[in-house]
Amino acid sequence: MSYITLGIPMIDSLLPDGMPRNSFVLLFGEGGTGKSVAIAQAAGTRIRLGEPCIFVTFDDSPSSIVNNFLRLGYEVRGALANNVLRIVDCFSFRARTQPKPTEGIRIVQNPKDHHELTGTLLSTAEGMEGKGTIFIDSLTEFFTISEPTSTLETVKNWRAEFCKMMGIPIFATYHIGLKSIDEFAAMIDYLVDGIIDFRFDPLLAQQGLLARQLRVRKMKGAIHDTIWHYFTIERGGLVPMKTHGASEPAHKKSK
């Protein structure tokens, strides 16, 4: 079994040996806690190394995804042209005027059709066996556009096909807070190999202060730190919060 890192130094430090390459890992938490930034940072790091990446976008347009990479300091336009970055567009079907496919971007005409979607992913991942990574932002949106039970089965199939059979890890975001699909969150927890939780410190939130935290809740086959850690978001992505020389707010240190 080969091991990989996520490509985010703060999170990689919590997984000293990395994680198995055949993992399906969920970045889990409420909106605004940094999950989408984290997944873009992880993809950007791999793209810089010349590793093939598939970025499946349900939440935003491909042009917005490219701009997000650029804001984080990752120049990805050349990677699109060279097929290092491959964007699977599951967002633009909502528009009245369908965009034309461009270099590095594959448009799924109907992502509600799981056969079409899976077929597009398989063709996009051709030649990536044992290398490269798939990023999905977000599974929540995938659940909202199609019947949740069949969507759950499709996610199980992706884990079996891509992660276990082809050795391509998947990192996906899941936003909690939608009552209509929150009941499926526990099922998602059960089927994935790893979960990285994101949240706002609940005690500080009661005081009107938003301090982001993350932890590795579980990671099959890997040693991992399960303690909550504070972080901030800067131009390059996630960095540990530095307060009074430590990675936690002063009010925590004083206790």
Fold and architecture overview:
The chain has ten helices and twelve strands. It is globular, with a radius of gyration of 18 Å. The strands form two sheets. A ten-stranded mixed beta sheet has the order 6-5-4-7-8-3-9-10-11-12, sandwiched between helices. Strands 1-2 form a two-stranded antiparallel ribbon. The chain has a single domain (3-253), classed as Rossmann fold (3-Layer(aba) Sandwich), CATH 3.40.50.300. By secondary structure, it is α/β, with parallel strands linked by helices. The longest helix is centred in the middle third of the chain and has 18 residues, at 148-165. A hairpin with a 2-residue loop joins strand 11 (229-234) and strand 12 (237-240).
Any idea what the radius of gyration is?
A: 18 Å
Mean pLDDT: 90
User: What overall form do the CA principal axes indicate?
Assistant: globular
CATH architecture: 3-Layer(aba) Sandwich
Strand order of the largest sheet: 6-5-4-7-8-3-9-10-11-12
Instruction: Give the percentage of residues in beta strands.
Output: 15-25%
What does the main sheet amount to? 10 strands, mixed
Number of domains: 1
What is the helix content?
25-40%
CATH topology: Rossmann fold
